[in-house]
Every structure is written in C-alpha cells, then in structure tokens.
Amino acid sequence: MRLSEWRGSAPSKDAVGAKVTAVVDPVIASFDVGGDPDCWVAWGEEPGQRYTILVPTPTGLVTCYVRVIVPGEGPRAAAKLIRWNRVQLGELAIETQGGHRLLSFQVESLVLRGADDVADRIAAFALDLFDAVDGRPPRTRGPSSTSRGGRTATAKASSAKAPAAKAPAAKAPAAKAKT
Fold first, then answer.
1. pLDDT of amino acid 129
2. Residue 161 reports pLDDT greater than 80
3. Is residue 177 part of a domain?
4. Beta bridge partner(s), residue 55
5. Are residues 56 and 76 in the same domain?
6. What is the 3-state secondary structure (H, E, C) of 85-104?
7. Sequential DSSP letters for the chain
8. What residue numbers bound the domain in which 70 lies?
C-alpha cells in the first residue's frame, strides 16, 4: 500500500496528524523514495504513541521510527537505510483453519501478523522483501481490491512455468557407409 493509504486507515488520527506528517515526510523523502512510497506501516500496540514505516528501495530497506508524542518536543522521526545484504528477515509462516489464513513474518525486530486479507498483503510484502534481498526484481501482481493484495490468478499464471514448446524432431545424421 502507499503511505497515503496507510494514513487513511490509521487506527489513531493523532498518529498521522499534520504535525506528525510534517516531521515524517521530509525524513522519508531524504531517501529519494518519492512523496507517496509503497510501504508497510507496523502500527504496533500503541499507534497513537509510536509506529514504524518500512519502505523497500532498490538500495535497501528504509526503516522510519515515528514517535507521535515526545513530551516538551512534539513528534519525532528517525530513519535509517539498511542495505539488502544486512536486512534481517525471518520465516514467512502461514496456518489455515476453517477457511481462514493466519500469517506471521518477522522483518528486522518487527513481527507482522494478520488474518485473511491482511495475511495476503503481508505475504506480498514479505515476498517483495525476499526478492529484493536475493537481487530479483519485484514480482508483478495483477489488479486487486488493494494495491498489496494477494497474488491473483493472472499473477499466478505468469509466474508458473509454462510448458516448453515441442521443437520439431531433428533428423539423425546419416551413418557413414563403410567402404
């Protein structure tokens, strides 16, 4: 999802208020990721107090730590770029039960957990990170209801191995006659 979409769905409106975005946006922009980067926001247990923004870039993973309320100072944002060869990724684990999917994934020190549609978005984000760490281009995904939705049938078909076309049988070379 784009940063603007995350802000629209924030669990606490204070976490994305004008004072906070005025501090966060220049910090993220300093990594040349554009004004509205594709990212993941880990709201945590107290999103009105602090949260983390993860932005994949060609160079590495931008990690922006946001503190919404700093007594006597106002909001604070600190970010760093972690090169891909240093990014710490955990396992991508999924469990299904009764038609529901539960997923967990660890990136740096953050554990991302979700069910169903959120699990699909976490899986897509995790696969993008795995691709980046391994030096592969990001996967292409078909249209979905969310910009980070699960892999659609179109994306699945394009990533599946297509059967090789049969080449016409070559004629065997003629055997040399013995004289």
1. 95
2. no
3. no
4. 62
5. yes
6. HHCCEEEEEEEEECCEEEEE
7. -BHHHHHHT-S-GGGGSHHHHHHHHHHHHTTS--SS-B-EEE--S-TTTEEEEEEE-SSEEEEEEEES--TTT--EEEEEEEEGGG--EEEEEEEEETTEEEEEEEETTEEEEEETHHHHHHHHHHHHHHHHHTTPPPPP----SSTT----HHHHHHHSPPPPPPPPPPPPPPPPPP-
8. 1-83
Are 53 and 103 members of one domain? no
Same structural domain for residues 75 and 12?
yes
Both 47 and 102 in a single domain? no
| Confidence at residue 103, expressed as pLDDT on a 0 to 100 scale | 96
| Same structural domain, 20 and 70 | yes
pLDDT (tens digit per residue) in 42-67: 998 888 899 999 999 999 999 999 99
* Residue pair 27/79 in contact by the 8 Å Cβ criterion: yes
Q: Is the pTM of this model over 0.70?
A: yes
Phi then psi dihedrals of residue 113, to 5 deg: -130, 145
What CA–CA distance (Å, rounded) separates 81 from 120? 26
- Can you tell me which residue has the tokens 């919404």? 68
Q: Is 108 helix (H, G, I), strand (E, B) or coil?
A: coil
pLDDT attached to residue 164: 41
pLDDT, position 141: 60
**Is the predicted pLDDT of residue 98 greater than 60, yes or no?**
yes
